[in-house]
Amino acid sequence: MNPGIYGTIVFMHVISAILSIGPLFLLMPIIKRLRGVKTDIETAYLSVISVIIRIVMHAGHVLVVSGVLLLIFGPWPWYTSWVIMTIAILLLSGVFLSRGFTIVLRRFHNPGMDKNSILNRLNTTSWIYIFLMLIMLWLMVQKPILW
Question: Which domain of life is it from (predicted)?
Answer without folding.
Answer: Bacteria
